Amino acid sequence: ICVKQGIAQTHANIAVFGPGTGFGAACLVRSQGNQAVMSCEAGHISLAPVTELDRQLHNVLRDELQHVSVENVFAGPGIARLYRAMAKVQGKEVNDIDAAQIAALAQSNQCIIAEQTLNHFCDWLGSVAGDIALSFGALGGVYIGGGILPRMQERLLNSRFTERFIAKGVMS
Question: Whole-angstrom Cα distance, residue 114 to residue 99?
């Protein structure tokens, strides 16, 4: 699916990232007719709070983790971790459940915290995607892989992902 249509520069870098069991990222670097793949440890970079809700969630997450990384929220048990943080910020009690249970509760409209968690997951991931695009100079495009987002396509498309992807101050 196309999340945000753009005009790719033909010989520019292309970024790829994907939340799943881990959080991977790489760049196809293209220069003067040559190209090479550059991988990195993007999952271990610090997760930056942008909005007030991000800041509140980040504070709760920081109480649990010494270092709040991108992978801590957007991979593996990250959705469950974000769900517990969202509940704490909202002043609600929740059960200790996994990502699949959270997704099922959100899908069936049985839990507002689950819905808020998945919506914010998509929103905040937009900021991370924009950071990756800037870091790699990805004027050739940004592609998303991984195992989580294909199950949340509609939610992703209805989220603030694109808005947060482009909200980069002077580099918007």
Answer: 9
32 token code pair:
């003067």
Do residues 13 and 139 make contact, with C-beta atoms less than 8 angstroms apart?
yes
- Answering whether pTM is above 0.85, one says yes
Look at residues 124, 117, 103, 119 and name the one whose alpha carbon lies nearest to residue 159.
Answer: 119
The owner of tokens 């769900």 is 83
Interhelix angle for 78-90 vs 52-64, to 10°?
Answer: 110
Per-residue confidence band for 152, with pLDDT thresholds at 50, 70 and 90:
confident
Q: Which amino acid is at 44?
A: H
User: Is residue 42 within 8 Å of residue 72, measured between CB atoms?
Assistant: no
What residue has token string 């200790």?
A: 96
Estimate to the nearest angstrom the gap between the alpha carbon of 85 and the chain centroid: 16
Q: Is the CB of residue 4 less than 8 Å from the CB of residue 125?
A: no
